[in-house]
Amino acid sequence: xxxxxxxxxxxxxxxxxxxxxxxxxxxxxxxxxxxxxxxxxxxxxxxxxxxxx
Length: 53
Fold this sequence. Notes:
The protein is an all-alpha fold. The protein has two helices and no strands. The mean pLDDT is 84.
């Protein structure tokens, strides 16, 4: 999941450099959504790990 975030951020940066505003903002938004999903899943896995022991 982290790999997708990095790929989308690189696409957003390259698109921003070349002036493709729509593509850059779209890729950045998708990267943000995936990042927050990753954070939520990480916290859930930590909570489950604490209760499992």
